[in-house]
Description:
The chain is an all-alpha fold. It has helices at 2-29, 47-54, 56-89, 95-103, 110-121, 130-154, 159-166, 171-182, 184-200, 203-208, 216-226, 230-254, 256-262.
Amino acid sequence: MRTSGWVQRTVVSLVYAFLWLPILVVAVVSVDTSTFLRFPPQGFSLEPYHTVFTTPEFTTGLVSSLIIAVFTTVVTLAVAIGASLAFTRHTFRGSGAAQSFFTSPLLVPNIVLGLALLLLFAPLGLTDTYTGLVLAHVVLCLPYAIRTITVSLSTVDVAGEDAARVLGASPWTTFRRVTLPLIRPGVVAGAVLSFLVSFDEAVVSLFLSGFDITPLPVTLLDHLETQAGPEVAALSMLLIAFSLAAVLAVERALGLGRSLRAST
């Protein structure tokens, strides 16, 4: 038994090392004094981080990504809450097929999905527009939001909703005053996942973005092709830090850990 426990701890440690080692390498490269990516670094400097904040293409890409992620999260939550209510509170023919349809983007490679959306949006004039990018990101984020909210609704006792309606509350009042507070963990988890997935999406955005609107991940890829310097690693570390900060902030404010546990 002791040998088995030692082997298990060793395997877990190796897995964590495998996951964290690339991030550590990027962190080290991000403070290199070189003008191109290399490892090990030849010096220490914070100039790459200064370059990130003084490069117009990076700041413009950041603004575009934030706009897309915010609108994607709002639209995704609106659709996901409505769909989840339909799946959990009503029985109708084709419910299983509808749920499979909403979660199907998880089974399709992003490069295939990006090409399909390009062929669909191009004749409609939705390429290189915020509308097209938001709609594409909503398709990617819906499976995560629907999953978390559906599970939350499934664990909620409907007796409170029935009591509210018996006492004369309208459907909207019942949802706003009773259902929504009860499913808040799932909604919070779905919102955080949707925002981070949208903000970090590069493959689909690469197909649908253009000269006018270029999200930050696409800007990073374009910059990497022409100027593969330490500022690329610095920007990558800033994106990682931003994601961690977002999760920790929500955890402190609303308890994201409990939200995710409640939705699984």
